[in-house]
Write a structure and sequence with these properties.
The chain is of the alpha+beta class. It has 13 helices and 25 strands.
Length: about 525
């Protein structure tokens, strides 16, 4: 009898080893398989093994990574949601160790509405002032490349950036608590946009010479300063910037802070639209990043949106707007502005190497559009001056104001054409677009109790992390002091797997979700 029990115990142990080995094999194959039938098969095999949530969490948190084939500047490409393949670059420091979690800094470039993607991306990255930071502090850098139709605030460009972050996490041992975003000019504006619409992946945002309303205005997307409550921002502008000077940006930053934005605002004096302050600023940026790792389960989240695709912040997702039910405490933080900037209204074609400035896209309702300019025109004179660089155009604009007359000569199909007109008069507009009603949720939790204050909140979802609640007790949810949920939440292995594959985040391993429809 004793011998029989020993044999049974040996079989049990052996089956356990086999199951564990099969789980590891299937999980490894799943993590290296793209979407499709094969991925579904691996998920099915893992579900048959039926591992515990703790086992799966342990395996996902301890994924191993290979030594990269190349370090330094690495060129790659991604297929965007519009079907177009676009390049991007990594910078991998020589000190990168695949056994060690490594910080990731995502850098968004300026001039993102250019017609063509940046020419020779590797040379562009080679000039980045952040390479020294990467070498000294052992950071991996990610350089997405945008263009018209794939900007930092349209659906194609946003999906592209987030996809590249997932790809980076798939290949390199990235510290999920230390993923940061910065950028200059349009890149700074893009950093504001991601902070207000897609903050979950990031620990902090560091916009440089950007504008918080560009993504909303140019992208046609409603954004909200209250959403800046959820992440630390270090914002820098300069006093002589002709696009976004401190005197215009400071009232916006004050308004954001009234909305409880977690924001540090600083300026550099005597500098225009230039990152010439980088040598002084980059060490401060590094200090700010190191002092602010991402909080795994923040006890409080404030979030406002008009649509579900911009409705997620960490464990909270605003699913639906319920029109008309505006809370008495609700306040929208927005402001009316006057656009008095003088602009010709075209994007230069950076690929053009000849004399003059070749026009890329001509922007509607601007001087160029109203005067009859067309994409492909080459500006050869402005006023009485030959155009040898963009600086000639900028010098001409500096002497003009909105409503003034202007004239340029362009070369079109070999023919010189004189275009005359006026810069449009000053125009009033809202800093942040407002076309549709929005929903706001101000959510907090303590142990197993979630309190949600909602305004026009029609539906929302709470993602449950094992470290947030006691799973052997009921999760209790109140909305505007009314009990809407009181039940246990079971761990769902399939949900965990699919959630991880969607975001590749080894920290945010949610075990299930609770959706409330009001």
């Amino acid at each position: 009898m004793k011998k029989f029990l020993c044999i049974l115990w040996s079989i049990f142990i052996l089956q356990g080893f086999i199951s564990a080995e099969n789980l590891q094999i299937n999980l490894n194959q799943l993590l290296n398989t793209d979407e499709g039938k094969e991925r579904e098969n691996f998920i099915e095999e893992i579900l048959k093994i039926n591992p515990s949530a703790d086992t799966l969490i342990t395996l996902l948190r301890n994924i191993t990574f290979d030594e990269p084939e190349k370090k330094g500047i690495v060129l790659s490409e991604s297929t965007c949601t519009d079907g177009v393949k676009r390049p991007f670059c990594w910078y991998i420091p020589e000190t990168y160790n695949p056994t060690k979690k490594t910080s990731l800094l995502v850098y968004l470039h300026g001039g993102v509405s250019r017609v063509e993607i940046i020419d020779n991306p590797e040379e562009y990255v080679k000039e980045s002032p952040f390479l020294k930071l990467a070498d000294i502090e052992d950071y991996i850098l990610l350089f997405p490349l945008g263009q018209e139709g794939a900007t930092w605030w349209d659906s194609v460009g946003v999906a592209n950036v987030l996809s590249q972050i997932r790809t980076t996490k798939r290949i390199f041992n990235i510290d999920d608590k230390r993923v940061y975003m910065t950028g200059f000019s349009d890149g700074g504006s893009g950093s504001f946009f991601f902070a207000m619409c897609h903050p979950t992946n990031f620990a902090v945002f560091l916009p440089l010479n950007g504008h918080p309303g560009v993504g909303s205005i140019d992208g046609g997307i409603q954004t909200y300063f209250v959403n800046l409550f959820n992440r630390p921002l270090s914002v820098v502008n300069t006093d002589l910037d002709p696009l976004y000077p401190d005197k215009k940006m400071r009232p916006m930053m004050n308004l954001a802070m009234e909305a409880k934005a977690n924001l540090l605002y600083r300026i550099y004096t005597g500098i225009g639209h230039s990152f010439e302050y980088g040598k002084e600023e980059i060490p401060l940026m590094h200090q700010f990043m190191e002092e602010h790792p991402r909080i795994l389960n923040p006890p409080e989240i404030k979030w406002e949106t008009v649509e579900k695709r911009h409705g997620r912040c960490m464990w909270l997702l605003v699913d639906e707007v319920k029109v008309g039910d505006v809370a008495s405490w609700y306040r929208d933080h927005n402001m009316e502005l006057i656009d008095d900037r003088v602009a010709f209204g075209f994007y230069p074609d950076d690929t053009y190497k000849g004399e003059g400035i070749k026009m890329g896209k001509v922007i509607d309702s601007t001087f160029c559009a109203l005067a009859g300019a067309k994409e492909g025109d080459i500006v050869i004179t402005v006023g009485n001056n030959s155009v040898t660089s963009m600086q000639v155009l900028n010098n001409y604009k500096a002497k003009k104001k909105r409503g003034d007359s202007a004239e340029i000569t362009v070369l079109r199909d070999g023919e010189e054409i004189e275009l005359k007109g006026h810069f449009p008069p000053p125009e009033e507009y809202m800093l942040l677009r407002r076309d549709k009603p929005s929903a706001r949720a101000e959510a907090s939790f303590c142990e197993n109790i979630f309190d949600i204050n909602g305004s026009q909140l029609g539906a929302f979802t709470i993602y449950i992390h094992a470290d947030m609640v006691r799973l052997n007790q009921n999760v209790v949810i109140y909305v505007n002091d009314k009990l809407v949920y009181d039940d246990k939440v079971e761990q769902d292995i399939e949900f965990m797997l699919r959630n991880f594959l969607e975001n590749r985040d080894r920290e945010l391993l949610y075990i299930n979700k609770v959706t409330i429809i009001l």
